[in-house]
Amino acid sequence: MTTFENLTATYRSQTPMMQLISSTEDPALWSHPVLDLFAPPVIERVEQKAKLYLVPSTFGEELELDEMPIPTSASDLPELHAWTMKFIVSVVEVWAGRRQPAQLIRWCHRVIYMELLKKSGSQKEIGKIKSIHQTEPLDGICESTVIIRYNDRFRAVVIRFEGVDGRWLCTALRML
């Protein structure tokens, strides 16, 4: 063994092995042929709060600035599917004349409430709810389609809820 080989062996035995440490958390990048310098940057996803674009329906009424309804985000309102189910069951009972419309006055815009009063007792029986389909086009707005069965006939009911003043408010209700 030459003196050079002896020196090299001695140096290796005295010096601890150096390990490469990645600047990112994933050590698998070092086994890739691309250097860590050229690795794609780690993108941090910041959860954003939904923006509230709701302009509450006024049905052409001119309101004072302090009387204007205040939009409310859906995250601050009751769970939507349960709320829709509870509301449509009440509406179907009002249409059948089994429930007083006054019980829904807080949850309907006054224009919708007046329409509900006119249709109170217009159905001969209480319909059976078959399905509910919902969409939320914007934060604080829900549009629902409810399929209701009356004997052998199916009817669709469309409903629009808006988050206003800390509650869901029905601003459209129509049976097709």
If you had to describe this structure to a student in words, what would you say it looks like?
This protein is α+β, with helices and mostly antiparallel strands and about 180 residues long. Helices cover about 20% and strands about 20% of the residues. The protein has 3 helices and 4 strands; from the N terminus they run H-H-H-E-E-E-E. It has a 4-stranded antiparallel beta sheet with strand order 1-2-3-4. The longest helix is centred in the middle third of the chain and has 16 residues. The chain starts with a helix and ends with a strand.
Mean pLDDT: 79
Order of helix and strand elements from N to C terminus = HHHEEEE
- Beta-strand level of the residues, as a percent range? 15-25%
Q: Compute the gyration radius: what is it? A: 32 Å
Alpha-beta classification: alpha+beta
The global form is elongated
Cα end-to-end separation: 98 Å
Q: Characterize the biggest β-sheet.
A: 4 strands, antiparallel
Number of strands: 4
Q: Give unreliable regions as ranges.
A: none
Percentage of helical residues?
10-25%
Number of helices: 3
Trace the largest sheet across and list its strands: 1-2-3-4
